[in-house]
Amino acid sequence: MVDIVGVVVEYNPFHNGHLYHLTKAREEVPGAHLIAVMSGNWTQRGEPALINKWARTEAALQCGIDIIVELPVVFAVQSAEGFARGAVKTLEATGIVNHLCFGSEAGQLEPLQTIASYMEAEPPPFKKELQLSLKKGLSYPAALHRALSTVSRTGKDMPLSAETLENLFTPNNILAIEYLKALKKISSEMIPLTIKRRGAGFHDLQASGDIASATGIRRALFKKELGVVNKTVPPPSREILFEEIAAGKGPVHEENFADVILSLLRRSSPEKLASLPEVIEGMESRLKKAASSPDLHSLFQELKTRRYTRTRLQRILIYLLLSLDKEALSYFNEAGPHYLRVLGFSRQGKDLLSRIKTRAFLPLVTRPAPFIKDPLISPGAKKMMHYDILATDLYALGYPSPQQRTGGEDFRRPVVKFDPAVNR
Fold it and tell me: Could you count the other beta carbons within 10 Å of the beta carbon of residue 188?
């Protein structure tokens, strides 16, 4: 039986660091096929993707992925825990993925698994320190860091030193820990593998050789520094990126949504804002007051605090844009993904789809229209798909070309198919 490696990605855009990750994954599991769960048109940082999910799917297939499955938007725009849990459950539901491979700054599983097990057990000293840190107004990542460091220094059941923990608190390590927690939570038999990240860090704005962070590449593209893009993005991905830009469908920037977001803030009642996920302790009043800001930059400057980081605020605004409230998100987190939406596959991926059809725990969706019209499909599944379709319709409003901003793209775009023998 051929091994199947699952990866969780955004590919925003697909760059040389991602190519390195796939190459190392195949070295770790020789002969394996690769299935990616990918965020759609909105990302975990609460930002619109640079180019749409079909273009990013095509780039990924040309660069070595066999199947792309969309991570439903209700998981894709959550904090690390919800994002990771939704992605791991999606891979598990295929019924054929037996390895989960993710990048990390640590490059070793052992310390990450130690933290994941410790957090999953929630020992009282850790839980107490975490709650105290949150009450002091720290963001969750900062509160988590302080709580783990504190219990380590006081010798309260934390086997890792404070110094080791300090080195582990980086964005990709945190996501890696959440993947490991999710695997434990659902008693998955997927074997975790981690690849040490090479070159530029998660938020680095400068390239390191031919490697740059996705953040740095996006920044360079918006500033029209095409030399950075040419050096750090592999040719297939680069060509697709420039084709989308030439067609007026990229790059999509959060500022393109400023008017609609500010109008929603201004018309929403404090009660409506209080119903949004991650809004707590009277933040709705501050949101309402800041709604008079003239642009998103001013809005974020007024709202940012130690607890409410820019990333968290961006997610809250996406919840508002999607009209996704705490009750709905709680339901989706409890229920997990309801389907496997296939965005694209390669020639090898086509054979894997046949296996998934016979072994998957969830229905396989290649066209949303028949799925949402099927009377046998649960209301919860239709509601989840509704958010995916809405997310695409709203995303289209951010295309630079007004002619490209029509809705219903989910119903018009076919599954992306890539055959190297045909597409040479």
Answer: 17
Q: Give the pLDDT of residue 199.
A: 62
Q: Report in angstroms the alpha-carbon separations of 187 from 84, 183, 184, 363.
A: 15, 6, 5, 21
pLDDT tens figures, 249-307: 999 999 999 999 999 999 999 999 999 999 998 899 999 999 999 999 999 999 988 78
Q: Are strands 340-346 and 191-196 parallel, antiparallel or unpaired?
A: unpaired
23 touches 234 (CB < 8 A): no
Domains of the chain: 4-105+177-252+336-418 (3.40.50.620), 109-169 (no CATH), 254-325 (no CATH)
User: How far apart (Å, rounded) are the C-alpha atoms in residues 142 and 134?
Assistant: 9
DSSP character at residue 404: G
Q: How many residues in the chain?
A: 424
- Write down the mean pLDDT value for the chain: 92
Q: Which two tokens stand for residue 77?
A: 């725009």
Summarised one tens digit per residue, pLDDT across range 196-246 is 988 655 445 555 568 999 999 999 999 999 999 999 999 999 999 999 999
Q: Which residues make Cβ contacts (< 8 Å) with residue 416, sequence separation at least 6?
A: 54, 57, 58, 61, 68, 343, 344, 345
Q: Are 48 and 396 in contact (CB under 8 A)?
A: no
CA distance 416 to 254: 26
pTM greater than the 0.90 cutoff = yes
Contact call for residues 317 and 46 (beta carbons, < 8 A): yes
